[in-house]
TrEMBL record, chain A:
TM stretches of this protein: 27-48, 83-105, 117-137, 143-161, 213-233, 245-267
Keywords: Cell membrane, Membrane, Transmembrane, Transmembrane helix, Transport
One GO BP annotation of this record: transmembrane transport
Family of the protein in this entry: Belongs to the binding-protein-dependent transport system permease family.
Protein name: Sulfate ABC transporter permease
Classification of source organism: Bacteria, Bacillati, Actinomycetota, Actinomycetes, Micrococcales
Record membrane topology: Multi-pass membrane protein
Superkingdom in the source lineage: Bacteria
Automatic annotation (TrEMBL), chain B:
Protein name in UniProt: ABC transporter ATP-binding protein
Gene Ontology molecular functions: ATP binding; ATP hydrolysis activity
SUPFAM superfamilies: P-loop containing nucleoside triphosphate hydrolases
Taxonomic source organism: Glutamicibacter uratoxydans
InterPro entries noted in UniProt: AAA+_ATPase (IPR003593), ABC_transporter-like_ATP-bd (IPR003439), ABC_transporter-like_CS (IPR017871), ABC_transporter_ATP-bind (IPR050166), P-loop_NTPase (IPR027417)
A Pfam short name: ABC_tran
Transmembrane segments: none
Keywords, alphabetical: ATP-binding, Nucleotide-binding, Transport
Ubl conjugation keyword on record: no
Positions of the ABC transporter domain: 3-224
């Protein structure tokens, strides 16, 4: 006996992929195409360039460096060291910046005094802190962490502050009419409402932390310091090895992009989706 | 105890007097509509009664536990589900934790929204959001309920349904409701008494009692609606003229 489900009418096509699947594919395919186009342009320029290949290496020459660095373990070791520093430094930055931001949000006078200084610190290039940190702490991890924290903390503070500033006044009125205490208002209304701004601040804080770390590792080399990705960049410069320098730059970009794509972008998307919102340009 | 206003005035720096020596006695269990054109200080009056604003002059008496408030837009917290929004109100009112889930279910049944407890606010229609907001206001379990044009943004059919439900709720709970609106028909449909406010500054121009008999009589209700609309139009024109000069 045949059943209806076993029968397929002629001309019936498989269901079209859902809009969500199409969007996910678009999100994956578009950056891949962009990278392929850029790498192809780079290779064409390298072929066409009158410069020597060691002064303008193409992507092939740069990638050829990879097996060598993987074989002696220097690349993976450097990436591991830098990632550990960046993640642990970032966590410390979050733990320091969050209470400071909450304090400033609730102490207008303090904010008027300190707020502009924090914004100024955010503008200051982190590399400017490196000489001072080396004089103070020598060639040690303390130097690296000082530069990283001074780079990340101001942007996390400003992110949380702007998240709190954007909370609709009506939420404050709601807290009052519901009889919430100050602590209850902060816990149940203010912090969750500021979360999207906070995550944007964290995202920016991570970018600053990663950049500051590279700046610190680039200058602070030697002593008791383990080799980080920035130091590997410096090694490439010392050896006038442009393919190595280019490869390390690509690794720095890749790690930054992976953290962004795997951690912050999904977190931000989920937060916004839960609130019926989406990032500009997304549906 | 209801609400007592004595010579209450409110002025903002820059905009001047918003409410001018307003006095009214609102009895316990009364359903009162505050009717006025836009910008006449209706919402400010509710903010004063709820304690969100302090009067510049005069005094008022409200029950010791304050008043529940329902905002013009639902003002639901978008990261919480509908049920969690109501549960938060219970939590902040120190309602026993073990009984909260049951109370949330009861309140959602009361506003006829049992199927939407787990939905997020953005998944609900405007009317459903306002029902959740009503459930949240009722969760505060205060005798006085302040409603600031809660149905103004809804379509006519939804508004009509909610009017009926609100009247039923009022009859069931016996709460004192102060309902602010600029919609004359809405005021007649819902309230037992209407306070008509003047425009800028807000003063009580007229007080009208609405009986069930009048409500049931379409001709009488229409006459009153026309009369009140004429008063409001006159006020609005006066206000616009004052603004121009």
């Amino acid at each position: 006996m045949s059943t209806l489900t076993e029968l397929k009418a002629p001309g019936v096509q498989a269901p079209a992929p859902s809009a969500a699947t199409t969007r996910r594919l678009d999100a994956l395919v578009a950056p891949v195409i962009a990278v392929v186009v850029l790498v192809s342009l780079w290779q064409i320029l390298a072929w066409a360039s009158p410069l020597r290949s060691d002064l303008f290496p193409g992507p092939g020459a740069v990638l050829a460096k990879l097996p060598e660095l993987l074989a002696d373990g220097s690349l993976l070791g450097a990436v591991g060291t830098s990632l550990f520093r960046a993640v642990s430094g970032f966590v410390i930055a979050v733990l320091v910046a969050t209470p400071i931001a909450l304090l400033l949000a609730h102490q207008p006078l303090l904010r008027r005094g300190v707020g502009p200084l924090i914004s100024a610190m955010q503008v200051l290039p982190s590399i400017a802190w490196v000489p001072a940190a080396i004089i103070l702490f020598g060639l040690s991890d303390a130097t690296i962490y000082t530069v990283l924290l001074l780079g990340a903390i101001p942007s996390i503070i400003n992110g949380l502050l702007s998240g709190i500033d954007m909370i609709p006044q009506q939420y404050t009125a709601l807290s009052k009419v519901l009889g919430a205490s100050k602590r209850e208002h902060i816990l149940h209304v203010e912090l969750p409402a500021a979360l999207p701004g906070y995550v944007s601040g964290l995202r920016q804080g991570w970018a600053f932390a990663w950049r500051s770390l590279m700046a610190a590792e680039l200058i602070a080399v030697g002593g008791s310091l383990a080799l980080g990705v920035g130091s590997l960049l410096q090694r490439g410069r010392d050896l006038a090895d442009l393919p190595l320098v280019m490869l390390v730059i690509l690794v720095i970009l890749l790690v930054g992009a992976l953290i962004e794509l795997l951690c912050f972008a999904p977190l931000e998307r989920k937060l916004l989706r839960d609130r019926g919102m989406s990032r500009t340009g997304e549906k | 105890m209801g609400v007592l206003l004595h010579e209450v005035s409110l002025s903002y720096p820059g905009t001047g007097l918003v409410i001018d020596r307003m006095s009214a006695e609102i009895e316990d269990g009364e359903f009162i509509a505050v009717l006025g054109a836009s910008g006449c200080g209706k919402s400010s009056l509710l903010n004063i009664i709820s304690g969100l604003l302090a009067p510049s002059a005069g005094w008022l008496e409200v029950p010791e536990d304050g008043a529940a408030f329902m905002f013009q837009d639902s003002n639901l917290l978008p990261w919480l589900s509908a049920g969690a929004n109501v549960e938060l109100a219970l939590k902040l009112a120190d309602y026993p934790k073990a009984l909260r889930a049951q109370r949330v279910r009861e309140l959602f049944e009361l506003v006829q929204l049992s199927h939407a407890v787990d939905k997020k606010p953005h998944e609900l229609s405007g009317g459903m959001r306002q029902r959740v907001a009503l459930a949240r206001a009722l969760a505060q379990d205060r005798q006085v309920l302040l409603m600031d044009e809660p149905f103004a943004a809804l379509d006519a059919i939804t508004r009509d349904m909610l009017h009926e439900e609100l009247r039923n709720l009022w009859e069931q709970t016996g709460k004192t409701i102060i309902f602010v609106t600029h919609n004359v028909r809405e005021a007649i449909r819902l309230a037992g008494r209407i306070l008509v406010l003047s425009s800028h500054p807000g003063r009580i121009l007229e007080t009208r009692r609405i009986t069930d008999e009048l409500r049931r009589n379409p001709a009488q209700a229409a006459d009153l609606a026309n009369e009140l609309t004429t008063i409001l139009r006159k006020e609005q024109r006066k206000h616009e003229h004052t603004d121009r000069t």
